[in-house]
Design goal:
Hydrolyzes indole-3-acetamide (IAM) into indole-3-acetic acid (IAA). This protein is α/β, with parallel strands linked by helices. The chain contains 14 helices and eleven strands. Helices cover about 35% and strands about 15% of the residues.
Length: about 475
């Protein structure tokens, strides 16, 4: 292949082909990434820690492996970054909190083990909401990440730094986590792809938990193909994660490009159309996305799933109960070490009863059965919103923790279904809008196939934020 354009714009797939053809080195990709981080991060605050020496060592190791004919997989020689709840041996992992400001794990998390074994190049750690909850707080050790499309707006959360870094082209792929939408929400508001795999598909071992039964790990990336290639590396059974599923991982990238003929996609329009946070921009973009999928050959018709309020109540009770159980000792002994937002949200779990949690778990089973045995029994996937509006400005966040409305992601943490966030257009304010493709359990291949076809036809993913900063070359 012939390299055209700046190196930082090469996808994982294209960079991989160039590496294997000897047209570029991992060290060259890494130096470009480090230069771009140095130029952009002072304004975006996506990275809380950069690791230039480690990155150069990883890159040199990958280049040497290529020279010896060793190929460890699609991420060999590719720079990436981790949300700062992913444990890394000998490298500070803070969860964006004063409580863990100097915390240095002694072991890598399972995802980092796989990325390192696959020859990836670790650039650093990315900002998050404190303990992956709370909001864009200014009372923490590091400032909140800013949206590359407008620095006065937030990124969504809690994989805030991951979304900002990918959207700004600092990195092609960043790992995030998703307990109620923390991969898909930032992906939607920053105009990137974000994949929440099926619950149990990717090990959470060594990743600081928010809610054990809702937590998922997955990538944010520039493209669906890059998400698929990343999943091939990080997915798989881990006997040390009690929730890990011992189910074979298919070649998800092989399903890309097959087209949509023969697929049935359920459009959950009635699920959101009366939501008070719905904007005209989002309505137009979602309807246009449904029409585009039909134009691509899929059978698209409207389907019903249970009311969002039921999913939301169920998810909130489970998340706050489990989060409180994790943080109870620190909340009682070191309450002032928490930021205000995280403290207020996690401490709310103290008032929940055992009966509340039992009822929420019972409702969870009913809701999961209603989705998997209903709309997803008759359809291969669902089209549904991620957010019903564009990113809010920081000025909308007051002194106390508040839930931002219009984010419709947590239903699929309740069900554990695979869900892929995709950019589908822009609002009149110039900020991104997104939708999600939701699939049957462990059928990421179909979800990615649909997303890839939409991405190629819509052309939205090729748009980049108008950053008034020098581009890397």
């Amino acid at each position: 292949m012939s390299l055209a354009g700046p190196l930082h714009e090469l996808s994982i797939a294209d960079a991989g082909r160039a590496l294997r053809a000897g047209e570029v080195t991992s060290l060259a990709l890494t130096e470009v990434a480090l230069d771009r981080i140095a130029a952009l991060n002072p304004a975006l605050h996506a990275f809380v820690l950069t690791l230039p020496e480690r990155a150069r060592e990883d890159a040199a190791r990958a280049d040497a492996a290529f020279a010896r004919g060793i190929d460890a997989g699609p991420l060999q020689g590719i720079p990436y970054a981790l949300k700062d709840i992913y444990g890394t041996a000998g490298i500070r992992t803070t969860c964006h909190s004063s409580l863990l400001h100097d915390h240095v794990p002694t072991a890598d998390c399972a995802v980092e083990e796989k990325l390192a074994a696959g020859g990836g190049v670790l650039l650093g750690k990315l900002g998050t909401f404190e303990f992956a909850i709370g909001g864009p707080s200014f009372d923490l050790p590091f400032p909140p990440a800013r949206n590359p499309w407008n620095l006065n707006h937030f990124t969504g959360g809690s994989s805030s730094g991951s979304a900002a870094a990918v959207a700004a082209g600092m990195v092609r792929m960043a790992m995030g986590s998703d307990t109620g939408g923390s991969i898909r929400g930032p992906a939607a508001l920053c105009g990137t792809v974000g994949l929440k795999p099926t619950y149990g598909r990717v090990s959470r071992r060594g990743v600081f938990p928010l809610a054990y039964s809702l937590d998922h790990c997955g990538p944010l990336s520039w493209s669906v193909e890059d998400a698929a290639l990343t999943l091939q590396v990080v997915a798989g059974h881990d006997p040390l994660d009690p929730a890990s599923a011992d189910i074979a991982v298919p070649d998800c990238a092989a399903a890309l490009g097959q087209g949509l003929e023969g697929l049935r996609i359920g459009y959950t329009r009635r699920f959101y159309i009366d939501n008070p946070f719905l904007t005209p921009d989002a309505t137009r973009a979602l309807d246009a996305a449904a029409e585009r999928l039909a134009d691509l050959g899929a059978v698209v018709d409207e389907v019903d799933i249970p009311d969002f309020a039921l999913f939301d109540a169920c998810a909130q009770v489970i998340m706050f109960a489990e989060a409180y159980a994790i943080h109870e000792t620190d909340l009682k002994t070191r309450p002032m070490a928490y930021g205000r937002y995280a403290y207020q949200r996690i401490a709310s779990g103290a008032v929940l009863s055992a009966a509340d949690l039992v009822q929420a778990q019972r409702l969870r089973r009913e809701l999961t059965d209603a989705v998997h045995g209903g709309a997803l029994r008759s359809h291969d996937a669902l089209l549904t919103p991620t957010s019903l509006s564009t990113a809010a400005p920081f000025s909308d966040f007051g002194p106390d923790a508040a839930r931002w409305g219009g984010m419709l992601t947590n239903p699929f943490n309740v069900t554990g279904s695979p869900a892929l966030a995709l950019p589908i257009g822009f609002g009149t304010d110039g900020l991104p809008l997104g939708a999600q493709i939701v699939g049957r359990p462990f059928d990421e291949a179909t979800v990615l196939r649909i997303g890839s076809a939409f991405e190629a036809a819509a052309g939205v993913s090729g748009h980049r934020p108008p950053l008034a900063l020098p581009a890397a070359s």
